[in-house]
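Lab notebook, bench 4. The sequencing result for the construct came back, and we need a structural model before the next group meeting so we can plan mutations. Quick request posted to the team channel:

Model the 3D structure of this chain.
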Amino acid sequence: MPYVMVDVESDGPIPGDYSMICFGAVIVEPALNRTFYGRLRPISDAYAPEALAVSGFTREECMEFDEPRAVMEAFGAWVREECRGRAMFVSDNNGFDWQFVNWYFHHFTGGNPFGYSSTNLGSLYKGLHRDVQLNFKHLRRTMHTHHPVDDARGNAEAMLAMRQMGLKISFA
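Done. Here's the predicted structure in token form:
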């Protein structure tokens, strides 16, 4: 099963009322060279300035980004092209990232190529070590910059390190 590490930046806490501004994805494999990056025009007038600030973009810049439908169609095509079989969505905070990607896929394309499931990277690490107090973030090599491809790559590096520690995942 191919694993796709995803990171989302948004301008608020929930999809629909607020917008996914950009996201990045990396196929989890040793090379970490298969990536996707999308920047999406806001879908509502609402935004939280402090949330938008994390992305590093201004509202005016975001208004020039690509139409969400086109970005989600391109991402879906990329997932289907790059992944043989069912792809598994993984993220550092899948309660946040998954809700945006899943909502956008269903709203703009009518379906989600990842299906109905996602995996939380932090939970994998905690389970691997049988300790819910542990944090995996020290395993990242790429700096966490809030550029979603950098952040997805760093999280994919952490997942590859977990594989070296005994996490049973395969690259398919």
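The beta strands are 3-10, 20-27, 35-39, 88-91, 118-120.
Will bring this to the meeting.
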